[in-house]
Amino acid sequence: MSTAFPVSPPLARRMAALRSSAIRDLLAVTARPDVVSLAGGLPDPDLVPRERIRDVTARVLHSADALQYTETAGLRSLREVVAARESVRLSAPVDAARVVITHGSQQALSLLAQVLLDPGATVVVEEPAYTGALQVLRAAQARILTVPLDADGMRVDRLADLLSAGERPVLVHTVATFHNPRGVTMSAARRRELVGLADRYGFRVVEDDPYGELYHGGPPPEPVAAHFDRVIRLSSVSKTLAPALRVGAMVAMPDVCAAVELVKQGADLCDSRLTQEIAAELLADEPWLDAHLTGLRDEYGRRAAALRSAVARELGGVATLGAIDGGMFGWLEFVDGTDADALLPVALDHGVAFVPGSAFAVEGVDRGAARLCFTTNTSDRLEDAVARLAAAHRAPIPGAAGGQSTQE
C-alpha cells in the first residue's frame, strides 16, 4: 500500500498572472536605518496630525457606538462630508447616496473589478502604470491594453486610435492628477477629450485621485468626473491625514454603488466605524483641515524643490527630473544609457533606494527611469540621498562587461 501523501490541490488559475509588487518587496530593504528611501510612496509620519487624531479618537470613544458595526456603504456622517467636499471639487451637487466608503481606495479598485469585469474583459491603463491597479486587474483576469503618457498626461489621441481600430474597453483607468509614478497631470483639454470618447464608445472611466489635494504649483484642472457622470472617482485620506485610518471613498452612479455595496458585504461586511468616525470629524472641520493641507502643500513643495535642485547639481547632464507640481513623486530619466535596474543594488550599497521604472511597466520595459518619492524625507535628507545616488551612478556595476560604470 502506498504511503505517499496526496498532491495538494492547485491554486486558482488567476494566481498565475499575479506577481508581488516590487515596491512592497523593497520596503524590507528600505527599513534598514542606513538606507535613505526614495522608494515607498509614504507621507512623512512627522506631518501626520497625530495630536489631533489622538484628541478626536478620545472624543469619539466617549460613545460605545464607535466600536459597533456600521453600514456596509459607510458611516452616514462620513458619506455626507465626502459628498459635500466632492460637490465643491466637481462644481455640482453630489448626493451621499452616490458615496461608498472603502478600506482605502485600493479596496474600491478591487470591488469595482468584481462588479465591472468578466475574465477577458478589456481594460486600458496608462503606461507606466500604477502597480496597485495592475495587481487588481491581473487578479480579475482582465485583458490589459496601454496608452502612453507625456508631459500633459494620458495620450488620449492614442486611446482614440485604439478605439478606431475596434477595441472596446469596459473601462479606462487613469491617475489623471499628479500621476503615480510619472508625476504628470492630464491637461484640461485631454480630460474633456477623454470623457467625450467615453460618451461616444460607452466605456467607464475610473479616476483614481489620492493626490489631487497635494498641489504646490497651483490647483490642478477640474476632476475628470466634473465633465461626465460615467466617471467613477476614487479618493483616500491616506496621503492627507493618515494611512492607518484606511479610509477611502468611491463616488459613482447609484447602480455602481449598489453593486459595489453588495460585493463588499461578502468581502468584509463593513469597515471600521471607529476610523470612519475619526475621519468624518477631521474632514468636517474645514478651518483646521484647510490649515493642515496648506502646511502639507508648503512643506512638500519645498521638498520637491530640494529634490530638483539636488538632481540638477549631482546628476546634471546624465539625468532629468520631470515637472513636479504636486503629489508625491518625481520621475527621473537617465539620458546616458544607465540601466536603473542594474543601478538599484549599487545604490542600496551606497545607502539609497528608489523604484526602477520597469516596476511600472505593462508592455514595454523602461529600464532607463526611476520613481523618486520626495515626501518622506526632509530637504537635507533629500540632498544627501541624491548625493548617494550620484555616487552609486559613478561606481562600477558588479558583473558588467569590463567593469564599466553606470555612466558608460
UniProtKB/TrEMBL annotation:
Named cofactor requirement(s): pyridoxal 5'-phosphate
Protein name per UniProt: PLP-dependent aminotransferase family protein
Xref: InterPro entries: Aminotransferase_I/II_large, Class-I_PLP-dep_aminotransf, PyrdxlP-dep_Trfase, PyrdxlP-dep_Trfase_major, PyrdxlP-dep_Trfase_small
First and last residue of the signal peptide: none
UniProt keyword terms in alphabetical order: Aminotransferase, Pyridoxal phosphate, Transferase
One Pfam family it belongs to: Aminotran_1_2
A molecular function (GO) term: transaminase activity
UniProt cross-references to SUPFAM superfamilies, sorted A to Z: PLP-dependent transferases
Gene3D superfamilies attached to this UniProt entry: Aspartate Aminotransferase, domain 1, Type I PLP-dependent aspartate aminotransferase-like (Major domain)
Domain spans labelled Aminotransferase class I/classII large: 36-389
